What we know:
The structure holds 2 protein chains of 2 kinds. Chain A is α+β, with helices and mostly antiparallel strands. Chain A is built from 3 helices and 9 strands; from the N terminus they run αβαββββββββα. In chain A, a hairpin with a 2-residue loop joins β5 and β6. Chain B has a single domain, classed as CATH 2.40.50.140. Chain B is 18% helix and 36% strand. Chain B contains 3 helices and 5 strands, in the order ααβββαββ.
Amino acid sequence: xxxxxxxxxxxxxxxxxxxxxxxxxxxxxxxxxxxxxxxxxxxxxxxxxxxxxxxxxxxxxxxxxxxxxxxxxxxxxxxxxxxxxxxxxxxxxxxxxxxxxxxxxxxxxxxxxxxxxxxxxxxxxxxxxxxxxxxxxxxxxxxxxxxxxxxxxxxxxxxxxxxxxxxxxxxxxxxxxxxxxxxxxxxxxxxxxxxxxxxxxxxxxxxxxxxxxxxxxxxxxxxxxxxxxxxxxxxxxxxx
Amino acid sequence: xxxxxxxxxxxxxxxxxxxxxxxxxxxxxxxxxxxxxxxxxxxxxxxxxxxxxxxxxxxxxxxxxxxxxxxxxxxxxxxxxxxxxxxxxxxxxxxxxxxxxxxxxxxxxxxxxxxxxx
Lengths: 240, 118
C-alpha cells in the first residue's frame, strides 16, 4: 500500500471516530441548570405527615434507628438544625425543599444543593484510587453514560441513622439512573430512580424515585448557616 | 413564585424549621391562623432559621416575646428584602403557637409595616 493511501485511510478512520464521538456526546442530555422540586401540572401541595411504608430493616438496624428517634424526636432536633448537610440519599431526594444546581462537565458533574451549600461530585472518568477514598455523608459517586441515561453509583457512605427517610449503614451502595424528559408544556423534568442496597441494614434493596423541575431564571442563594452561632460567640467574648 | 414558596415552606416544614439549637417539636403547627402583632425589637433573618423578637401587649401585659421563623433563603424567595423590617416597626406574624402555651411561636408568615407579606 502506498504511503498516501495509508494516510488517507488513517485520516478516514480518525474522522469516523470523531463523528462517532460527537454522536455519542449528542446523545447525552445536558443537566446543567437550577432544579426545584417537581410538581405535576394541577397537582396540589404535598401533604405533611403522609403515611410512609415500613422499611424492611433488619432487627439490629431497626434498634439503632429506633434509638436515634427516641433520642431526638422529643426535641425535634435534626442534623439540618445543627447546620449539617443532608447526605445521601436525602440530599438527592429533596434537600429540604431547596433548589439544587447542576454543572455538567465531560469528566465530572457537580451538584450543588442550596441547603447548607452541600455538594456532590459525580466523577465520570477513571475511578480514584481506593486508598484516596474515605466515608462521607454523601459518599463517593462515580457515573457513566448509557446512551441518554446517566448511571451513578455511590459508595463510601457513613452510617447514617439520621437520614429522614432511608437510614443506612456504612455498607450501603446507591445506584441512581437519571433521565431527562420534556413535559407537554415544554418544561424539563429530571428523574432519578434510586436503588439503595444495604445488606447490613435491609433485608432487600430499597427503591425510590425523585423528580426535579428545571427552574430557568432562578439562582441559588448563599446559605450561611453558622453565622448566628459565630455572632453569638463573638458577643459572648465581648461580655467577658 | 412567592405563594408556591410559602406553600413549600408550609408543607415541607421540617426543613424550613431546620433551626439551630431549637426544635420544631415545641410548636403546634396544626394551628395556622393565629396572628400576633407587636413592635419589632429584633429581626434577624438567618439560616437555618430566623429570629424575631416582638414587644407584645395583651392581657398578660407588655413584654418581649421571641419567635422563630423560616430560613433567610425562604423569606427572601417569599419577598423579604434587606431593610423591609426594622426595629420599632409594628408588624404582624402569622405564628403557630407553642404546644405548651408559653409565649412565642413559629412565624409561618410576616406582614411588614408597609403591608408587604412574605
